[in-house]
Input
Amino acid sequence: QVRLEESGGGLVPTGGSLRLACAAIGSFTSLNEMNWYRQTPGNQRELVATHTTDGSTEYLDAVKGRFTISRDNNKTTVYLEMSALKPEDTGVYYCRLFTPLDEYWGRGTQVTVSS
Output
């Protein structure tokens, strides 16, 4: 069984920065990708950033240039560095681990950006 533990959310003012972390605990294939999703008030969950096994990254247009996704060398922890935060970035941020056989989700961490 794999579980994902997220941390790093909180309350920051507009323009501030936060670093989210998600640790994957358990046994899983190294052939995987990890993602950050978010659900902002009144909206559906959306994909924010992706980090694949080969190291490539992709971002939601709204966060390009402000957010950076990275992984540790063991590929068991994924980070999301968020800067120049805006009130519209407020929401619950979820980590996802996707493998060829399964997918796992974290419980989410709240990010609140005050105006």
